[in-house]
Amino acid sequence: MRDESEMLIVEDLTLLMTDDRSGAVAGAGTLYYTLGGAVLVELGLGGHIRADEDDKGLNGVRVHAVAGRAPSDPLLRAAHGKIGERVRGVQTLLIEIGTGAGKREAVLDRLVERGLLRRETKRTLGLFRTTSTTVADTGYKKALLEQVRAVLVDGAEPDARTAALVGLVSASGTLPTLHRSVPWSGQVYERAKELERSSWGAEAVNAAVMRTVAAVSAGAVVAATT
Fold this sequence. Notes:
Number of domains: 1
Distance between the termini: 57 Å
Number of strands: 5
Strand order of the largest sheet: 1-2-3
CATH topology: yeast vps74-n-term truncation variant fold
Shape: globular
């Protein structure tokens, strides 16, 4: 059984994508796809769900909840319950979970509770209240980045969890933002893509992200010509 104190993949992923100083999360426009994918991958690795590779529709492979395998973690349990309502394609679930149980605010709250993020509220001109979130414990994030660097730069063989984490960062399109710790290169890109393709969850995120970016780009072209 999973230890409640362990970090979820979606937590590690969000921490990696959060800028230490500004608190901005990279890839914000398609973040719900990425976070939803991280939750699905975690459930898959834990044997809580399965994907029917022989049953693919417009929304990708169909995902089933495994009966009697509800996880103990409340965030994962909520997602498992959503999946158990009815069988759906992975693309649909990426949106439903990424905007529901695995949404950004819920994950950020967990990271604040763990002491890994710091949330501060300030008033501007004494009237407008703004809330900012920044990285509080850089030691954990540094160790996490070292694991990622070891896999992508030094050629270390990752465990299933680290492979999924790297694959999801790659799928989100945010890997170049880690260049200070993981120098960007063709070798790093290819290694990350290799790990991305090895996980059906990460691959589904990649397809969703690419489709969204293409739609946004097409919309921008239309706006510029009308």
